[in-house]
Design goal:
The complex is a heterodimer of chains A (115) and B (113). In chain A, 0% of the residues lie in helices and 52% in strands. The radius of gyration of chain B is 13 Å and the shape is globular. Chain B contains no helices and 12 strands. The mean pLDDT of chain B is 94. The chains are: A mainly beta (115), B mainly beta (113). At the A-B interface, strand 5 and strand 9 of A face strand 5, strand 6 and strand 11 of B.
Chain lengths: 115, 113
């Protein structure tokens, strides 16, 4: 199957700083990437959908100015958590797909802790 | 709108016993259905998927699931549980293979010796 890599796998940052998470499709071109958030012992909630070369579509309730998503190439999407607060601590997972007829593949996730 | 309901947030079985994790879906169009497993602090691993072909789907690690349209169900089973099966399991649905998934709340499977 296709490989999606997320980096970093874990990050600790201070409150008020920004942190960038990368999601890369290693062996295919991803026209669409999805970003999910998972709180402890809860399900995955879709945050936004990003298509290469266009602005991301955010789900209701997700602050676009706080969670900046950039899908600058067909193999890379980044999620930047700006001015992070402790309540932003969570597990962030990306997935990527070639097209709407092909299933999306998941990255291994990033554990963000804001102290 | 699509949705997924996983009955039972926690299931406990003995090693060697049958595993049954329940998933019911709601969809106005023929669904694509998935089961994923997640180990602590790790990403999602696809166990199996239903994409409108055979209704009985076989996955990895001895798991299988049966799509029952009349019951709107896609329950996950494994004949004999292994200690390594202890993990969190998520059922997910979408209306097109490459679109965002809607996940159930998850079921924690515990396996005792």
């Amino acid at each position: 199957g296709a490989v999606v890599s997320q980096h970093p796998s874990r990050v600790i940052c201070k409150s008020g700083t920004s942190v960038k998470i990368e999601c890369r499709s290693l062996d295919f071109q991803a026209t669409t990437m999805f970003w999910y958030r998972q709180f402890p012992k809860q399900s995955l909630m879709l945050m936004a959908t990003s298509n290469e070369g266009s602005k991301a579509t955010y789900e209701q309730g997700v602050e676009k100015d706080k969670f900046l998503i950039n899908h600058a190439s067909l193999t890379l999407s980044t999620l930047t958590v700006t001015s992070a607060h402790p309540e932003d601590s969570s597990f962030y997972i990306c997935s990527a797909t070639r097209d709407k007829n092909t299933e999306a593949f998941f990255g291994q996730g990033t554990r963000l802790t804001v102290v | 709108a699509q949705s997924v309901t996983q009955l039972g947030s926690h299931v406990s079985v003995s090693e060697g016993a049958l595993v049954l994790l329940r998933c019911n879906y709601s969809s106005s169009v023929p669904p694509y259905l998935f089961w994923y497993v997640q180990y602590p602090n790790q990403g999602l691993q696809l166990l199996l998927k239903y994409t409108s072909a055979a209704t009985l789907v076989k996955g990895i690690n001895g798991f299988e699931a049966e799509f029952k349209k009349s019951e709107t169900s896609f329950h996950l089973t494994k004949p004999s549980a292994h200690m390594s099966d202890a993990a969190e399991y998520f059922c997910a649905v979408t209306d097109q293979a490459g679109t965002a998934l809607i996940f159930g709340k998850g079921t924690t499977l515990s396996v005792s010796s």
